[in-house]
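In this section we walk through a basic example: taking a raw amino acid sequence and producing a predicted 3D structure, encoded as discrete structure tokens. The instruction is simple. Fold the sequence below.
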Amino acid sequence: MKLQSITFYIILFAVQFTFAQHDKNIVTGEKIKIHSAILNEDRVCLLSLPELYNDSTNVKKTYPILILLDGSTYFKTASGIVHFMSSERNRNYFMPETIIVAIENVDRERDFTVTKLKTKRPNRMGGGKNFLNFIEKELIPFIDKNYRTAPTRTLVGHSLGGLLTLNSYMNENSIFDGYISIDPSIWWDEETMKAKVDSISPISLNKKLFIATANQGEANYERNKKRHDHLYDLMKEKSGEHLNIEIEYFEKENHRSVPLIAIYNGLKYINQEH
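The resulting token sequence is shown next.
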């Protein structure tokens, strides 16, 4: 794919804060619009650069990339977490300073699923492979070309986005190094997921995967936690003694509240030494 065919626009994405004597813009990120030939549409992403990215002392420093699905929903949350975990100002050093690329949604069912469900109404499900191709063959090369990136990449997704994250992890040709799958909708694709575990490559098993499970209540216990645990057990058996997968159950968090703590704990796991 020729990057010259990708249309690029940057619009400042500012948050307004009012101070006692001054009104100023605090810029928390940028919007970029990319035309995807693979998807045949424009896609908008929110971009967060490390705090000192443009500092004159850091002109040669490179940064890992975090690709965030459901970008509009989780951009500010993830930006705050990554800043807290990595900024020189905080001195936590849980992870390196990172460039966040948060992809805004167009059609979640189309983009986050790799199989179709039978429905009475027409649907556009099952476009997940195309969407991952857009990320890997158009979006990331564009970010690599226009920003100072390091060759380390993490994919983060919630719900159906968590399902797509798992599908990416199980693809031995995936260009990501770490994966955070937050309360993934395994019920959508359960049998296919089991088959993929059976044929999973050692290349995938050598990468880090964090799975977060929320408490969806007693009625959804069979549908959610047991399915997550079973998938984890299958991958654990396939991995043998060398396991790069962690699963965590958040009993006090539901499907909507779990992303905040899951992003934090997931990034700690992904970035800790073996």
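Looking at the output, two observations stand out. The longest strand covers residues 23-36. DSSP finds eight helices and nine strands in the chain. In the next section we compare this with other chains.
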